[in-house]
Design a protein that fits this description.
alpha/beta, 182 residues, 5-stranded mixed sheet, single chain
């Protein structure tokens, strides 16, 4: 310690207070929290927050979810339909073609190349209020999608999306074993 700091520390003090002032003159004072309580360590809390943020960003799934299937349930019991009044369904057969491809056959006679062409064919065949008299089928025509046993699920969903985009409202699925095998 320098003489100036000792003189400043000893000024105005006598006895034991003088010795304490000399001992603490060269030291820095420790700060205590308000009223002797402890202080919250924000550094560790911020570290935990950043770790949680990184965890949720890494594990988040940013894929677009599949669409919701519209299912309008009737309010009462089903009304029976006379067999002569029922329209024959429009069948869309899906069969595996190679390892990842699919062969699409509409109404058991019309092959189409891909789901965009399936949509175009169904749209051209639609007879609706907004294009009267131009198509073969009304929008409520039953459309049955019949996948063969080994068709990928994505192809079945793509066929469903093509039918719904063409504005058909009565779409159903047949069991995979009910589809005709090529």
């Amino acid at each position: 310690m320098t003489e100036a700091s000792l003189a400043t520390a000893a000024a105005g003090y006598s006895g034991p207070d003088r010795r304490a002032a000399r001992r603490s003159a060269g030291r820095t004072r420790r700060r205590r929290g308000p009223a002797g309580g402890f202080e919250l360590g924000l550094t560790s809390m911020i570290d935990v927050i950043f770790q949680l943020l990184i965890y949720f960003v890494v594990t988040a799934n940013f894929m677009i979810g599949e669409g919701v299937l519209d299912a309008a349930l009737s309010a009462g019991p089903p009304q029976p339909v006379a067999p002569e009044d029922a329209e024959p369904p429009l069948f869309i057969d899906l069969a595996p073609d190679g390892s990842v491809g699919v062969a699409i056959l509409v109404d058991e006679s019309q092959p189409v190349d891909g789901f965009a062409e399936l949509h175009d064919y169904l749209w051209a065949s639609l007879d609706a209020d907004f294009k009267p008299g131009l198509g073969l089928f009304p929008p409520d025509t039953p459309v049955v999608i019949r996948p063969a046993g080994r068709v990928r699920w994505q192809h079945v969903v793509d066929a469903f999306n093509a039918v719904v985009r063409a504005r058909y409202t009565n779409v159903s699925f047949a069991r995979p074993d009910a589809a005709p095998q090529p």
